[in-house]
Amino acid sequence: MAEQATRLRDFHDAALIVVDVQNDFCPGGSLAVPEGDQVVPVINKLAPLFPVVVATQDWHPPNHCSFRAQGGPWPPHCVQGSPGAELHPQLDRSHIVAYVKKGTRPEKDAYSGFEGTDDSGNPLAELLRQRGIKKVYVTGLATDYCVRATVLDALKEGFEVHAVADGMRAVNVKPGDGERALEEMRAAGAVVENSDAILAAAHAAPAPTARV
Ligand code: VGL
Ligand code: ZN
After folding, report:
1. Is the pTM of this model over 0.85?
2. 139-154: pLDDT as tens digits
3. Of the residues 24, 58, 78, 102, which is catalytic?
4. CATH classification of 10-202, choosing from 3.30.365.10, 3.20.20.70, 3.40.50.850, 3.40.190.10?
């Protein structure tokens, strides 16, 4: 394959979306995603490139319909105000401009960040558009659930969507679910790529210009 020169990308209208990097989805949590914590250093490396970083949080009431006691598929997780619902302690918060919470009503599950709102009730798509965002780079947990749903909704909302493969991990209830989710995102129009390609596109040296 021919070597392709790395082109500089413009990030001024791009946002990083960090999906559900919460303690309950990391090793030791109640719905731990294998290697879930390994997305944290990848996200911390990418965050400084973006003028807008948004973190979503699964934010369930104790009687949420997705919990087994209510007939749902999952153990209790990300209960509002609990330590398991907090973002991973090593996640760098300094670039985060909005926190979007979803799944807050007992009777309705919400996998996609686009079903969530910030603290003033503003939906994710709105707060991105208000900031002039046209492109989103999606990372987080879990590839086969909330990341998948967030990527597919971002495409429906008309954003250019990049799915950062090494910045996400899958639950893999069935082996291969994560790979199939990535294939689905690609088929729907997302660019699936690794963080090193994104960092290279941000840092590629511009053509030298003569200065006197
Ligand atoms: C998620 C299962 C249940 C996720 C949330 O964030 O991917 N998965 N609730
Ligand atoms: Zn949930």
Report:
1. yes
2. 999 999 999 999 999 9
3. 102
4. 3.40.50.850
